Amino acid sequence: MTRPAEKILDHAALFREPEYRKMLGEKKINFESPHLDQVASDQRDFTKTWKYRDKNLAREALVVNPAKACQPLGAVFAAAGFERTMSFVHGSQGCAAYYRSHLSRHFKEPSSLVSSSMTEDAAVFGGLKNMVDGLANAYKLYDPKMIAVSTSCMAEVIGDDLHGFIENARNEGSVPADFDVPYAHTPAFVGSHVDGYDSMVKGVLEHFWAGKERSENPYSINIIPGFDGFCVGNIRELKRLLTLMDVSYAFISDASDQFDTPSDGEFRMYDGGTKLDDVKAALNSGTTVSLQHYNTRRTLEYCKEVGQETASFHYPLGVQGTDEFLMKISQISGKTISETIRLERGRLIDAMADSQSWLHGKKYAIYGDPDFVYAIARFIMETGGEPTHCLATNGTLAWESEMKELLASSPFGEDAQVWAGKDLWAMRSLLFTEPVDLLIGNSYGKYLERDAETPLIRLTFPIFDRHHHHRFPLMGYVGGLRVLTAILDKIFDKLDHETMKLGATDFSYDLTR
């Protein structure tokens, strides 16, 4: 197995070498206690049946590969969207490492955060000392303008009081008395990353707005993007559209630059983000708009409490989704939708018409966050496709009802099914018993693609095994064109793969499609 340095193999080639095949084979026989091949094959076949599907969908006490993450991840992502903000997780280092790695693997960028490094003693006696020392170290070492505190499971199970701990840390001089330390309780054992995002954004707004007088500017708009793995491309595209309309706006939690720093010789621990002065001024905006309703329910309620109008959308993508968003912005701001934007809308519709024969009647399975699934299902029906399976592990009964109403509005949604609270192991059963043409989701779907041979289109967080998708928008008419192209590329790639066999299927291996 020893090789000279110039002949080192990549792991994909290395483990195909005879000595490694032998080693792995012996490991399986001697240490894995495998079933006989026929027994394993019979069990695999059983998991593809309707009988197994009924058992699988009836599961209540077990979750297998849920299409969601835990609350603190959402809080960390939200904090990254504010100016020079260091995210501080009150919990163990292991939890913090998970959030960092999840974000950095998706965005291919460093994701900075610190933890209070709670261990066994803190689990017994509480984490106050960890908070006092941790805030002092974060403030001195990383020079933030704000530290945003969230919690992991350990701190929540023992009932640590963030507000009290932060005030104690101030009294002991960990941070200056006037230094901004908003916080959110984000227990990882309930809810999901969208709830953590919601709690952190609300915590930041409460920190800056509570007790302040409001001087309303009715035509100014706050926009909350929601937890969005495509924030880099989406926020920049939306800013372009709003600038074309000459709208006065502020994005609340803008992570587009933080997760897309340039390589120019300068390390940026912090980049971009919503300026803290703009967060303070956002109290005076007439309306707060959410781009993802199920990401921001508590925040929108708080905005109503301070006297603002609110509006929410389900990830404005495609024709109708973008139409609704822009018309609402126009209504609030009093600004007209520019001719440039109108032409972009027409180009998207023209592209959909050009490809209609390839899109009509295609069946899809979609999974992800509730707003994303809603948006993709609506766009699929606009193209003449059928969103056969719509699954959101963190979907609520309200989401399920909204989805059914959406699907009932089009003949292409007649046979669609909505699966709130189900996981990707349930999706596997659905793909085997009611097959579809395409699967839309994140990188975790590649195992479904392998098992069920359903081509996967990666359009939502996290995308670990492909690079740079997040740099291009999905929202708006331009984003819709990007989604349309991704779908068509997968359709044509599959068709080419099925028709390339020389002399057997290549009579349909067409140059022009």
From TrEMBL:
Q: Using the record's annotation, list all stretches that form the Nitrogenase/oxidoreductase component domain.
A: 70-490
Fill in the subunit field for this protein.
Tetramer of two alpha and two beta chains. Forms complex with the iron protein (nitrogenase component 2).
> What protein family does this chain belong to?
Belongs to the NifD/NifK/NifE/NifN family.
Q: What is this protein called?
A: Nitrogenase molybdenum-iron protein beta chain
Alphabetized PROSITE patterns for the sequence: NITROGENASE_1_1
Cofactor note (record): Binds 1 [8Fe-7S] cluster per heterodimer.
Gene Ontology CC entries for this record: molybdenum-iron nitrogenase complex
Catalytic reactions on record: N2 + 8 reduced [2Fe-2S]-[ferredoxin] + 16 ATP + 16 H2O = H2 + 8 oxidized [2Fe-2S]-[ferredoxin] + 2 NH4(+) + 16 ADP + 16 phosphate + 6 H(+)
What organism does the record attribute this protein to? Neorhizobium galegae bv. orientalis str. HAMBI 540
Q: Which cofactor does it need?
A: [8Fe-7S] cluster
Tell me the CDD domains matching this sequence: Nitrogenase_MoFe_beta (cd01974)
What this chain does, per the record?
A: This molybdenum-iron protein is part of the nitrogenase complex that catalyzes the key enzymatic reactions in nitrogen fixation.
Q: Which residues form a coiled coil?
A: none
Q: What keywords would UniProt list here?
A: ATP-binding, Iron, Iron-sulfur, Metal-binding, Nitrogen fixation, Nucleotide-binding, Oxidoreductase, Plasmid
An MF annotation (GO) of this entry: iron-sulfur cluster binding
Residue ranges constituting the Nitrogenase molybdenum-iron protein beta chain N-terminal domain according to the UniProt record? 1-56
Pfam families annotated for this entry? DUF3364, Oxidored_nitro
Q: What is the annotated signal peptide range for this record?
A: none
Query: What EC number(s) does its UniProt record assign?
Result: 1.18.6.1
